[in-house]
Amino acid sequence: MTWHIPIITLALIAAIGSKCQAQAPSEPQTPGEKVEKEFYTPKDRIEAIRAALIFTPKVVGDADIMQGPEQNKKQFQFHFNDKVTCNFDKPGSQMGGKTPKFSCKITRVEGANGQAQVLTTDMDEEPVKVKFGANNKEVYAEVVATRLFWALGFYADSWFPVRVECHNCPEDPESGSGSKETRTFNAATIVRKFDGHKMYEVGKPAQGWSWKEFEGYNGRPSYEKDGLKLMGAFIQHSDNKPRSSGWSARK
């Protein structure tokens, strides 16, 4: 199961909205491939929910909260407050949602110790989502929430707090309007999505699942499901709209 958690406050946390990504047993694609919007039949979708794992037991004390999850060696490695240099790709208005964001293609990452990583031909890098703004609560809350889920063994996207220097960036990165120049965002986060596929049902454009379906179909032990429900209650589902509610699951 893969969580994507947008808004969370906590006295720390405030809201959660998750995207559903699951792989049906009959799916022919390999991991990482995109699936068509209308891929799942109702039976496939229920089976995906039934077979989905909830979490992997781990020693919580071994989790390095500051560093976060292990990262793909073929991609840039992010650390707290790294300076990320990138070229603007597309505005947030084309990415869904209302939180200030944009996508860009990373060319260089410089750490606090001065060591730099540069883009090479053997790297597996596509444009990344950047959320920005000192007043954007998601910039802080998503890092806290996903690190918490990850440390406890639940599957989650990985968010990294960084500084972003965006080249050829419009005055308004959200709409894409205004003059283009190099702009700096000192309060920003970059996401690495958890591997998986979006779960759609034929004839229904919405994705995701409901807690009722989760309780009725998922085959994991009740204590595992109760743990996930407890976490859901802890972070308060307030962005759980039909078109975006859901859950990400791993087989």
In short:
The chain has four helices and eight strands; from the N terminus they run H-E-E-E-E-H-E-E-E-E-H-H.
Keywords:
251 residues; 18% helix; two-stranded antiparallel sheet; 8 strands
Q: Over the alpha carbons, how many angstroms does the gyration radius reach?
A: 18 Å
**How many strand segments?**
8
The ordered H/E elements are HEEEEHEEEEHH
| Low-pLDDT windows of residues | 1-35, 243-251
Q: Distance between the terminal alpha carbons, to the nearest Å? A: 8 Å
Fraction in helix: 10-25%
Structure notes:
With 251 residues, this protein is of the alpha+beta class. Helix content is 18%, strand content 25%. The protein has 4 helices and 8 strands. It has helices at 42-51, 137-151, 211-217, 222-234; strands spanning 83-91, 101-110, 116-118, 128-132, 158-172, 177-192, 200-201, 204-207. The protein has a 5-stranded mixed β-barrel. A hairpin with a 5-residue loop joins strand 2 (101-110) and strand 3. The radius of gyration is 18 Å and the shape is globular. The model is unreliable at 1-35 and 243-251 (pLDDT under 50).
